[in-house]
Amino acid sequence: MALLGFWELYRWIWTTTGWTWPFVVDDTSMPHIWTIGHAFFQPTQVNQPLLITILLHKMAFTAKEAAAGFAIGALVGFGLGVLLVHSRLLQRGLLPYIVGSQTVPILAIAPMVVVWINPKLPTGLQGWGAVAVIAAYLTFFPVAINTLRGLQSADPRALELMRAYAASRWSILWKLRVPAALPYVFSAFRLAATASVVGAIIGELPSSIQDGLGGAIINFNQYYTFEPQELWATNIAAAVLGIAFFLVVVAAERAVVRRAPENVA
Amino acid sequence: MTAKALLARAAQWLPALVVAAVVIGLWQGLIVAFHVQQFLLPRPSAIATTFWSDRHELWPAGWYTFKEALGGFAIGSGLGILAATLVGRFKTVGTALMPVFIAANAVPIVAFAPIADAWFNPFSPHSKMAIAAVLCFLPVMVNTLRGLQSSSPRQIELMRSYAASELTIWRRVRVPTALPFVFTALKIASVLAMIGAIVGEYFGGATSALGVLINSDAQIFQFTTAWAGILTASLLGIGLYLAVAVAERGVVRWAPRAQGS
Amino acid sequence: MSAPEQTVVSVEGVTKTFAHGNVTALQGIDLSLAPREFVSLIGPSGCGKSTLLRVIGDLLEPTAGRVTINGKSAREARSDGDYGIVFQDAVLFDWRTVAKNIALPLEMLGWDRQRRKERVAAMLDLVELNGFADHHPWQLSGGMQQRVAIARALAFEPALMLMDEPFGALDEMTRERLNLELLSIWEQTENTVVFVTHSIAEAVFLSTRVVVMSPRPGRIAGAIEIDLPYPRTVETREDARFFELVTRVRELLRLRGEHLLPEEEAALE
């Protein structure tokens, strides 16, 4: 609520004083809150469904991509973490590239990934499946890094205890390392939840997929000068989706991690 | 550094170099062996050749985008540190605003790229700087705040026993404690800044910008040139990241050298 | 040591309650220390010995009662740098070298660089850490870190030392060696010490007087004068008188430490 008030106040000050720094404030750059709110319940064109109906459909589509991407990314990231914790050699060999992978501008590769992967997918997955892969690319990184850190965080004395029991690597992993890593993994999941939505939207942009929020952003961006409130409404939908994903992960964390996650970054 | 220490450092990086050699070798080999369509995934040698032959176009474009990223990085990180300092000063404000920051952190900021283009001139670097700055702001602000709040209560008690003022405690305890947190955030922000600039350019920008270049090349299936552009962007991103890491080593000199990171 | 003509620390009727008055950590504490006294506070956990130390150092404000140090209020004494404090953990600043950690209180007091340098060198000598000046805390063992903390507390020659279980986290051998070192430092510096511990042997070995505290609420259960002669050595620990005093402290602790006597409990209600 305070945020909405601040928006209108900022608008009011800048329009009445005529300040143009850092940018010109008018009905196009900062539409009134109520204009944006009203836009949700208007059809975008004559004989079309309401904007909110369209946006809800697009949100569901993007959510599907993001969820699939999150699942793939989380699995791959967790697997990588487990793999790396067992081999210093692999850690030294792969870790620099896992970090480096994030400096690759994914938006730039997205069209190539889509063109490359799409024909190989079964018909049911075509289009959104490729976008999910891009979402997974953004998701796996925080999960891999934090899983590794979490698995390494197991108490060395507890490790010795397990060795004293002649426990196998497998049972050390599941009975000790994984429980120790859970708070780290979930803190990565929280980052990954947002990243998967970002990845899904970015993936849609260059792949001419019109059914999701990314497509809607491109579409409404073209009419921004006439109908700025529609792009704003789409962005609010994207924000809601991002926050919803985040909250789902937080809820799952509450259910799974009963301990107080102390100082877990 | 002695010769022995240098050798040990080299041995640490050896596995990484081997992996690079094997991957590039396989990539090149498989494409040649299985006649993969050149336009989808070009040979590494072709990308490298283009990276060099198109340097008069690619490198200035990279530099242009890099400047946008750097500007956004500086503005966003600066404001993030400033905001964290202010919020850290007034505890009640901090606790009241924390949920807002956490929610804001979960918002896909890239969706706002076209709006930044509408606010600023899309052909000016300012719109890209704005996106990069917004992307950098939150992680830096949240991490700095966490750093400022993680001072040891005992160290503060010790300073109180010297009758130190709040300002002195801030300067001598809180800031040094926060520095490692700040640098962790700055490393994240350095990567985000480059991505922010390129995403910003996707929605339109000066033709001399790297993101615009990659995008237009990809649309006309000039994938080799696009990959060379991606290589340029990655190298610049890694460069900025390494610059921050080097600065960290210079400032946070007291920490034991973490292995392998 | 009744009615000393001169007091360094005087605690009068100090009561401290926490959590909006729900927990009484200290109740009606009276204690006074003459110059050159070495007083140990001992008692089970929760008896408020660390709280009392912090009240003396003006790190906590008493709910009722008064603390005077060298004739000044505790607040003034803190501002004047009248005491040095050592905690259970060394509480060193990771980002400072050993030398700079020791110099920290001197910087706060505005000493110039040359004077700081000389004093730090002397302190490193005192705690036998020459050659470690430029090390960072993480490069030192626990015992060495604690010696740095002691050097830091002594650096500005405070007349009063407050020590909160300074050797509590160390192994027995290191602890006994540091006990001897601390005594020799004390004999050189002629300061007054308030020493919190949960080790009976340590309290008896170090102190001129052992003050036993009882828990819930924290009160002084009694005091025992330790008449073992100084300088105390390794042999002191094998002295019959040493065992006798240890036994007396232990009995006082058992009698009054764990639980209050029934009539006292009744009197409190």
Task: Provide a descriptive summary of the structure in words.
- The complex is a heterotrimer of chains A (265), B (261) and C (269).
- Chain A has 265 residues and is mainly alpha-helical.
- Chain A contains 10 helices and no strands.
- Chain A is elongated.
- Chain A starts with a helix and ends in a 9-residue tail after the last helix.
- The longest helix of chain B is centred in the C-terminal third of the chain and has 37 residues, at 166-202.
- In chain B, helix 2 crosses helix 10 (223-251) and helix 3 (55-89) runs antiparallel to helix 8 (166-202).
- The two termini of chain B are 19 Å apart.
- Chain C is α/β, with parallel strands linked by helices and 269 residues long.
- In chain C, the strands form 2 sheets. Chain C has a 6-stranded mixed beta sheet, with helices on both faces. A 4-stranded antiparallel beta sheet of chain C has the order 2-1-4-5.
- Chain C is globular, with a radius of gyration of 19 Å.
- Chain C starts with 8 loop residues before the first strand and ends with a helix.
- Chains A and B meet through helix 4, helix 5, helix 8, helix 9 and helix 10 of A and helix 1, helix 4, helix 5, helix 6 and helix 8 of B.
At a glance:
The complex is a heterotrimer of chains A (265), B (261) and C (269). With 261 residues, chain B is an all-alpha fold. Chain B contains ten helices and no strands.
Which helices and strands occur, and which strands form pairs?
The complex is a heterotrimer of chains A (265), B (261) and C (269).
Chain A: H1 2-17, H2 33-39, H3 51-85, H4 88-101, H5 106-117, H6 128-152, H7 156-164, H8 169-204, H9 213-222, H10 228-256
Helix pairs in contact in A: 2-10, 3-6, 3-8, 3-10, 5-6, 5-8, 6-8, 8-10, 9-10
Chain B: H1 3-34, H2 44-53, H3 55-89, H4 91-105, H5 113-119, H6 125-149, H7 153-161, H8 166-202, H9 210-219, H10 223-251
Chain C: E1 9-18, E2 23-33, E3 38-42, H1 49-56, E4 64-69, E5 72-73, H2 74-79, E6 83-86, H3 98-108, H4 113-126, H5 142-154, E7 160-164, H6 172-189, E8 192-197, H7 200-206, E9 209-214, E10 219-225, H8 240-257, H9 262-268
Parallel strand pairs in C: 3-8, 3-9, 6-7, 7-8
Antiparallel strand pairs in C: 1-2, 1-4, 4-5, 9-10
